[in-house]
Amino acid sequence: MKRHFALALTGASGAIYGLRLTDELLKAGHDVTLLISSAGFAVLKEECGLDWADDPALPERLRLHFGAGEELNYYGEKDLLAPIASGSRAPDAMVVVPCSMGTLSRVACGNSGNLLERVADVMLKENRPLLMVPRETPLNAIHLEHMLKLARLGVRIVPAMPAFYQHPETLDDLVDFVVGKILDALGVENALFRRWGNPS
């Protein structure tokens, strides 16, 4: 069944996870709305060489990058009039990947200062799946308290922690494990990593 996912990239390290997840959701036939924070653009440039900030033609550029059509949409973080800012047009699920501790904190406190945070708030108030993929390390007590608060509200916290029982040989293997676990949490079938006890 086709679903609509909001996917937010913030200023934490690990932009590759967001890009790979976008690609996998589109390949699975789902609709994706991308949201990128200003710090997220900086990380995309630093880690992936993608200079997408301040591009007025970004929706078309993203579709070209992912080989997608109308199933891929993008809204700027200041566009609080975007359809997904309303509970009546809420996506089926939202993933914040990578999730910065600043974003996690503001969502935990109900501080919706931009579209990304507003959509996360919509997911909470509409009782729809919200996943956050933090990458920060080490974690301090404030980080942990905010994660616990969100987990108690039903948010799935899926840390970017690859396992090694699959004997990864490349960076892609490590990325695919994390993305596969996110897809598992979303209920999207995938074969991105070797399951425990499966020799193939």
From TrEMBL:
Gene: ubiX
Binding positions for FMN per the UniProt entry: G11, A12, S13, S37, S100, M101, G102, T103, R135
Family: Belongs to the UbiX/PAD1 family.
Enzyme Commission number: 2.5.1.129
Family matches, as Pfam families: Flavoprotein
Protein name per Swiss-Prot or TrEMBL: Flavin prenyltransferase UbiX
Residues annotated as domain Flavoprotein: 4-186
Molecular function terms from GO: carboxy-lyase activity; flavin prenyltransferase activity
Catalysed reaction equations from the record: dimethylallyl phosphate + FMNH2 = prenylated FMNH2 + phosphate
Source organism, top-level taxon: Bacteria
UniProt keyword terms in alphabetical order: Flavoprotein, FMN, Prenyltransferase, Transferase
UniProt binding sites for dimethylallyl phosphate: Y165, K181
NCBIfam families hit by this protein: PRK06029.1 (NF004685), ubiX_pad (TIGR00421)
Organism of derivation: Geomesophilobacter sediminis
Functional summary from the UniProt entry: Flavin prenyltransferase that catalyzes the synthesis of the prenylated FMN cofactor (prenyl-FMN) for 4-hydroxy-3-polyprenylbenzoic acid decarboxylase UbiD. The prenyltransferase is metal-independent and links a dimethylallyl moiety from dimethylallyl monophosphate (DMAP) to the flavin N5 and C6 atoms of FMN.
Xref: SUPFAM superfamilies: Homo-oligomeric flavin-containing Cys decarboxylases, HFCD (SSF52507)
